[in-house]
Specification:
4 helices, two-stranded antiparallel sheet, 6 strands, 151 residues, globular, four-stranded parallel beta sheet, Rossmann fold, alpha/beta, single chain
Length: 151
């Protein structure tokens, strides 16, 4: 089967758990019951078919890092349950949109907004992303869903 190419918007605790989970279960045997995983093979895809190809974030301490490092960068506090090798995915700046309230910019260590929707679309095209998963704590999903010409 071909790989599933996933891009993430938001590199917080949920993204950390998702990425660690793909590493933890990547060698799961298809004909066994695996605690914590409903299906080892779903529709012909194995969990090791999932490949993260792009990531976007507003926290300046995560931007520019490999995704494997960014998921463990504070303020993330998800429990580490699996080692994650270098993924060769550099976290890119995300347009802030409605994802961070003005009074929370300092708490979230937000960079000076310079990313555009067009720059995100170009990164997604260059990475050949097939799925864009928005993992955020706000209603930013309504903004990301409205991105025109997304691949």
């Amino acid at each position: 089967m071909p790989e599933i190419r996933v891009a993430l918007v938001g590199v917080g605790n949920s993204a950390s758990a998702l990425i660690q989970g793909t590493q933890y279960y990547k060698n799961a045997k298809e004909n066994t019951t695996v605690p914590g995983l409903m299906h080892v093979n779903y529709g012909g895809y194995h969990i090791n078919d999932i490949h993260f190809v792009a990531a976007f974030e507003v926290n300046k301490n995560k931007i520019g890092k490999d995704l494997s490092q960014a998921i463990f960068t504070p303020p993330n506090c998800a429990v580490k349950f699996s080692d994650v090798p270098n993924l060769s995915v550099t976290v890119q700046p995300a347009p802030i949109l409605d994802g961070v309230a003005p009074h929370m910019r300092e708490v979230f260590n937000v960079y000076n907004d310079s990313a555009t929707k067009e720059s995100v679309v170009q990164v997604l095209k260059d990475a050949k992303a097939e799925i864009l998963s928005t993992i955020s704590q706000s209603e930013a999903t309504t903004q990301s869903a409205s991105t025109p010409n997304a691949p």
